[in-house]
Specification:
174 residues, binds iron/sulfur cluster, globular, single chain
């Protein structure tokens, strides 16, 4: 046990490289640095997100969950997902919002403290996507609660979610 503790304390940590096209791309690297600056200044290094699956196929959640892995490591920005809307600054919603989820989404939005942001994650959340027109869906988050921004994609990649959030959080200052 002691041997393990000493090994962990004195071994230099190896950073896992970002996927190709993330920090490697100079444009994206600038955006990531800019994102860090915004989180530091606008949210005092603490942005809390409530992620609601409003009837998605789950692929959008998989991509969103990947933000927590050691490659994307969204917590390095001071961002974290929370279980309660009462602790959230931002509501991230995936799926076309099924009729069954409509009330739950309205209540989640109502439970969040002001000021708050709502982001529709993925094509379904934007306009119903592949479920558009189906009797069981509302064709997007915007038909249920006010939306501040959309992140397109089916599903959007973790990088797209990260950079999308970076743009949308500007509304917090306006
Ligand atoms: S946008 Fe695509 S990946 Fe996301 S919930 Fe809809 S069908 Fe699934």
């Amino acid at each position: 046990m002691l041997k393990e503790i000493f090994k962990n304390v004195f071994t230099k940590k190896k950073a896992i490289p970002f996927p190709e096209g993330f920090d490697v791309d100079p444009d994206q690297a600038v955006k990531v640095i800019d994102f860090q600056r915004k989180i530091d200044t606008i949210f005092h290094r603490s942005l809390r997100i409530r992620f609601v699956d409003a009837g998605s196929c789950n692929a959008c959640e998989w991509e969103g969950t990947a933000l927590m892995n050691p490659i994307y490591d969204i917590q390095r920005f001071g961002i974290d997902f929370v279980a309660s809307p009462r602790h959230a600054d931002l509501l991230l919603v995936s799926g076309p919002v099924t009729r069954q989820m409509e009330l739950a989404l309205r209540r989640t939005y109502a439970a969040m403290p002001e000021p708050k942001l709502v982001v529709a994650c993925g094509d379904c959340a934007m306009n119903g996507g592949i479920y558009q027109g189906n009797y069981a869906v509302t064709d997007g988050v915007g038909n249920v609660i006010p939306v501040d921004g959309h992140i397109p994609g089916c599903p959007p990649t973790p990088t797209a979610i990260l950079l999308g959030l970076s743009t949308i959080i500007d509304k917090f200052t306006k």
